[in-house]
Structures are given as structure tokens and as C-alpha cells.
Amino acid sequence: MMHVSTADNPLTLPAEWRxxxxxxxxxxxxxxxxxxxxxxxxxxxxxxxxxxxTAILCIALGAGASGALNMWxxxxxxxxxxxxCDRPLPAGRMDRQSALHFGVGLxxxxxxxMGLAVNLVAAAILTVSILFYVFVxxxxxxxxxxxxxxxxxxxxxxxxxxxxxxxxxxxxLMPVLLFAIIFLxxxxxxxxxxxxxxxxxxxxxxxxxxxxxxxQTTRRQIGLYTIPMAAAAVAPWPLGLTGAIYGVTAVAMTGxxxxxxxxxxxxTPMAEDRLxxxxxxxxxxxxxxxxxxxxxxxxxxxxx
Length: 304
Fold this sequence. Notes:
Blueprint: H1 17-23, H2 26-41, H3 49-73, H4 75-78, H5 96-117, H6 120-141, H7 148-152, H8 154-157, H9 159-168, H10 173-196, H11 198-204, H12 209-212, H13 215-234, H14 244-265, H15 276-303
Helix pairs in contact: 1-3, 2-3, 2-9, 2-15, 3-5, 3-6, 3-9, 5-6, 6-9, 9-10, 10-13, 10-15, 13-14, 14-15
GO molecular function: protoheme IX farnesyltransferase activity
Main location: membrane
Subcellular location: Cell membrane
């Protein structure tokens, strides 16, 4: 069946539930939910299971709203990129107004429910995270500056803070460190991806770092950002906020991450089909974050 791009033709095919689900970026949402849940589980006070479930639901809905509004705003750009051209809007399976209404509805519902059922601190941080992703990252930074993913990485770093706030009603040093880990992890994670899809960004006119500054600069930045990320990842252990289970895991996993990042940083430009270390770093970076936050929970349960 031939799809008609919404960027070129207002006629669209009837949207299915799968298309609305795709708008929420479920692959990204998995990491959001996991880090938020870990932030909640390591909080120093227990949370009622029903309230905890409601908080995670609100975080998932808020993340889905952010994804939907991102796709609504970038529908024209997505038609120009191989990895995004089959999304519901550029593929013509949904009209932009439906995506906009869906995203705004999810965002409002998630924030209101969080405020009424959990607490206002968690609702406020959730609101900031949605607005930051949609207005600061998507609408302002991404189309204008190669530092888009550096500053915009804050959007994905909020979930563990929200999870912690849902349980405690406040923010202390630990959730700030969790925010810092994800914030500093995002550039090397995303730039590793952008090295082998840079032509997509170039065709779409998105000023990602490899497009405007070149591969060598991007590789160097991956290496440089890995240093503070490593420090933030290990910091909870010497600060006495976690035990040896997390500390040993953080040191070991960060060592592997740093070795992969060094391989990428020290390489010369390669053809896309030979970018195996870059793909390895990107794949491992996802495993790394899951392992790090999982170790936090295990450490808390066993040693806390």
C-alpha cells in the first residue's frame, strides 16, 4: 500500500491504535519508565503501591505526550530521514491535528493526575520535563545549534528525579546525581548514533554535530563527555550514598563504556558500513544505563 506524506498532501489513511502507540516512542519510553522506577525504589521512604503505579503511569503518559508532540512538530523533517519516514505522520497514516490533540491531551492528563494523586513536586517536575522537551529541545535547540543534544539531554534526565519526588515529595543530592548521570550520558550515546546516520540529519537540515563540525570533532567530544559522565556515575559510592554493589558495578561498566568511547574518539573518519565501534558504543550505552540503575536498586535492597 502506498503511503502519502502529510507534508505534501493533507489526505491520510485512517489511523490505527498502533499509530497512536508509535507516536509515544515506546522504545524510548522503556528507558524513561525504568529510570523513573529506579529513582522511586531507591528513595529513603516507601511509597504505597497504588500511588507508585499511578506515578509511573503519569511519567509514561508524559513521556508519550512529549514523543507525540515531537513527531507533530517534526512531521516535515521526518519525511526526509530514512529512519523516521515510516512514522505515522510522514507515512500518511495520521493527520497532524490528531497527533497534536493526542499529545496535548496526554500531557495535560498526566500532569493533572500526578498532582492530584501523587504530589505537586512530582507534577511540577513532570511539567517542566514535557515543556523542556517540546519547546526547548524540539522547537528551539534541535533545528538551530549542534549543541542541541547537550542541553536537550536534560529532557531525558528528569524521570529518576520525578520518581524520587513521587516517593518523597522533595529533591536531595541523590536524584540530582541521577539527573547528572543521564544528562552527561546523552551526548556520547546520541553522537555515537549520529555518526552513522549523519546523512539523514544532513538531508533534513538538522545541525547535528557530525554534520556541522565533522566526524573528528564529534569523536573528540564523545571522548571528552565520557570523562564527567564517568565521574558522575561513580560519585554516589565515594559520597556514601550507595554501597559496594553499585560502586563495583559502576566502576566496571563505566570502564567498558570508556574503552568503547576511546576507540571511537581515536578513530579516523570511516564509511558508514565500517562504523562498527560506533554502533557498539551506541548499543552498549543503552545496556550501560539499564545496568547502572538496576545496580542502584539491588544495592538499596541488599545493603540499604
